[in-house]
Write a structure and sequence with these properties.
124 residues; alpha+beta; 5-stranded mixed sheet; 3 helices
Amino acid sequence: MDEIAQASRNKQVVERSYEEFSKGNIEYLRAVLKEDFVEHSPGNPSGRDAFVEFIAGSPVAEARIDLKRVVADARYAVAHYRMTPPGDERGVAVVDLWRFEDGLIAEHWDVVQPVPEDVPNGMF
C-alpha cells in the first residue's frame, strides 16, 4: 500500500473510531488498537484491553465529542475536537496523536485544554 493510501486509511480509521465512540460503542476500540498499544497520557494504562476498560469506566465515555478535523499521513493521524462531559457546558479542547503500525493504532499522545469563557479567535 502506498503512502497516500495509508494516509487515507489512517484517517478513515480515526474518523470511524470517533463516530463509533460517539454512539457509545467503546468496544469498537478493541478492533483498531494493537494488543500491545502504548498510551502516553499520564494516569491512563497501556495495553489494548486495559485502555478500553479504563476509558469505558471514565467520564470520557459519557462525553459528547464534536470532531473538528483529522489530518493523517502514512504513520500518524491527528484529531482535533471538543469534548463536552456531562455538566461541563464549555468542555475541553483536545488534540490526539495516534501512531499506526500494520494498520492498527500502536500509540497515543494527547493535549487537553479547558475551553475558556472568552476565546476571541476561537479554539476550533
